[in-house]
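Worked example 3. Consider a protein that binds nicotinamide-adenine-dinucleotide.
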Amino acid sequence: MMPESIPQTLGRLRDFFATGKTRDVDFRIAQLKKLKEGIRKYEPEIMASLYDDMHKPPFEAYASEIGILYTEIDHIIRHLHSWSRPRRVATPVIHFLSRSRIYHDPYGVVLIISPWNYPFQLTIAPLIGAIAAGNCVLIKPSEFSSSTSATIEKMMTELFASDYVAVFQGETEATKKLLEEKFDYIFFTGSTAVGRVIMSAAARHLTPVTLELGGKSPTIVDEDVDLNYGIKRIAWGKFFNAGQTCIAPDYVLVHRKIKDSFIEKIVGTLHSFYGENPMMSPDYARIINERHFNRLLQLMKSGWVIYGGNSQRKDLYIAPTIIDQVSPNDPVMQEEIFGPILPLVEYNDIEEAIAFVNQRPRPLALYCFSKNKKIQNRILRETSAGGGCINDTISHIGSQELPFGGIGESGMGAYHGKASFNTFTHQRGILFRSNLLDISLRYPPYRDRVSLLQLLFRFIR
Ligand code: NAD
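Given these inputs, the predicted complex is written out as structure tokens:
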């Protein structure tokens, strides 16, 4: 689609929405089933595109970009009739003889903008929610994961009519044009900086937004920890997709007493994961492009590299890297790393670790490794984050029962499972007034009825 044809495409999406077809829950379920079949058919092509874009290991590609979507679709199909049904709610006594219901209306035409790091999953997961709620959709995938974006466009064109789900491919300038148009909802996944651009563009039309953004997600490792499990879970969450994961542990706050064994064990774990030379490992991804490669090389200049640190430009390879002795003012501690570099920050007591987290913007995820329930509870009570895990990393993203989203600078709104349905649905509250009775007290002239009203509101609940 060319930028010039955006208004026509939008017009077609609007016209199709106006036919009311998407309001039929069976229609939505049929589209979700079609989508699931389409993903199945395209599996080899999706995996190949992800490999092409960033050398994504097939295991990681299947788990995080494909398998997770099947469970999401199945979960939503299972519950969609019950979620969509108008819900009867109680009616206050003051509205005597009336009934109240909440209806679940689709917004209309939804814009989904997605990033390059999980380019398939982060496009299709919101699409599932948008379809489930009865919307028409325009998808704008990332220009950096061009192979996967091409596969998405091919797949969508094959599966859906272009007046129901359309794909727009374009770089920043073209996307700015897109944002001049009025949408009924914008679902954006990407950086905090671009999130601000999206929100101000949406504000011009008062379009509601969900912003799934990034940030520095801390991992606190308490002295009372099961390091054997903990280290593997931290290393896996960090180096999955070569650290290019929005909820990857960005840095580790490690208790002084266990820091040496932490370092010893994480080095051993990385050896066991990726072998002597991770560049030869089939299980280790590459950096998306040269711009990010250069940015990450700059960040590696902070602190003291105690493991890894090597790279190869022509392959966009950066080794899993551990950095010690970083200061909070080092560049690596100033921006989201979004790559395979793990800085360690030592702390003496839990107050210090909590204060460190709270002095920074609220993260998308926060992880705590501790066997001590009191420490777990303190961290949950005294910090704020989009989500996270206790004694694990990144796994919360795979649960349809957990709303996934940020807070503060890491985003607003949430999705997955019921949260996705809610996000793409407007709750319309309707009161049905009975014609059996009409209390004329509420009509003018009101005369001296204020005291009567006061009495009424004193006793009526
Ligand atoms: P990005 O913000 O650069 O780009 C995201 C999308 O916005 C892309 O489709 C891009 O084409 C578009 N875009 C870029 N500049 C734009 C502009 N000026 N106007 C309109 N559209 C524009 O993000 P990225 O580099 O693709 O992804 C990495 C970031 O995304 C990281 O910060 C990461 O933490 C975050 N992220 C968040 C989540 C989440 O679920 N919260 C998931 C993945 C990635």
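Take a moment to read the result before moving on. The chain has two domains: 3-213+411-426, 218-405. The two ends are 56 Å apart (CA to CA).
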